[in-house]
Amino acid sequence: MNIIILSKNYSGNSSYYHQDIIDSFKKLCTAYLYGDGYGDYDRNDSIADVINKSPFDNNNIDLIVCSTSWDEDTSKVQVDPHPNINLSKIVNIPKVYFLNKEYKKLDLRFEYIKKQKFNLVCTVHPDAKKWEEQLGVEFLLLPFGISLDRFKYFGLEKKYDFTFTGGLHKAHTDLRFNVKQQLFDNNYIDRMSTFGLDSLFSSNPIKKEYQKYNIRWAQWGAKNFLYKNLLPTGLQYVKMMNKSKVFLNTPSAIGIFNTRFFELMATKSLILCPVSNQYMGMLKDGYNCVMFKDDMSDFDEKLKKCIDDDVFRNIIVDNAYLNVEKHSYDSRIHTLINHIKGSLC
Quick one: pLDDT at residue 256? Predict the structure, then answer.
């Protein structure tokens, strides 16, 4: 399949999923990449110019894709990154749009979808069918995935008993903050981490009953002694998950099944997560994760069981690890291509 992918160049960027999707397309198709950051990009180009720059002719293009990074993300009033490219003029080639950051400028993105006359919209959001009816455009629920080239199990010593990194998202959900209240002494509830700069002049912020465990907690914004971000990236991020027995994760602020679930599966860190109807059948309590009740009534029991019972924990992480391959981005793009061949071509 010959495809043109409209995308910013995200190679070497820490927003891995943008590039992972591109890489999977390149494995499965003959792809021409065009957009900001690529050598032949020109803001004055039309779609005809893009096609002329590609190695394909008009009769030999099977698909045009607007990737997750194509949108204009810095402006509050627009999403079209390249107004000269008018895809509505293309009627003989299927056009696919990856809807991204559904929590942001959704109305503008819907306008862009209708204006460009896309044939298919891919989204990770569970409202796909509702939006399909609303816009009269076909939507495909295509969850996030994982690059198994990047996220691997290294067999490292499990140094951390329990880990959380990321944002609390208190404006959207209280799930993560509830866990923090369970673990942190009330006098230290505003501490952003259990180590780094926060630990320089104060006592252990964790309640006494949990201090026997090595708990690694770092919220967005937490700094080390050199005032650098405490949240690791790249290989250090992968190693941190490898070193964690148990890792807290929840659906994202708007209920999306986020990439970290798959990353934890691939690195053999046990997923501890709240009971939810937003897992789309990909998580099963006691099989590839452990779920606790929203009211936190069983959190203490579940956490201690996951940390202290090595046999119990290893069975669950092994189940998750053995099933993560079907959630690779290669698998996701293969599903998309088969869908396109079946319904659009």
Answer: 87
What is the C-alpha to C-alpha distance for residues 289 and 273, in angstroms, rounded to an integer? Answer: 7
Residue type, 200: L
**132 to 111, 185, 254: CA distances (angstroms):** 13, 47, 19
For residue 83, give every residue at least 6 positions away whose Cβ sits within 8 Å of its Cβ, in sequence order, or none.
Answer: none
Query: Could you give the CA distance from residue 177 to residue 209 in angstroms, rounded to a whole number?
Result: 19
Distance CA 178, CA 312 (A): 25
For residue 192 the two structure tokens come to 């952003």
Contact 58, 32 (CB under 8 A): no
Residue-wise pLDDT for 79-138, tens only, equals: 999 999 999 999 999 999 999 989 889 999 999 999 999 999 999 999 999 999 999 999
CB 41 within 8 Å of CB 54 = no
User: Cα–Cα distance between 289 and 282 in angstroms, integer?
Assistant: 10
Question: pTM higher than 0.85, yes or no?
Answer: yes
What pLDDT digit, counting tens, does each position of 195-222 carry? Answer: 877 677 678 999 999 999 999 999 999 8
Dihedral sign for Cα atoms in the order 224, 230, 236, 242: positive
Q: What is the reported pLDDT for 169?
A: 84
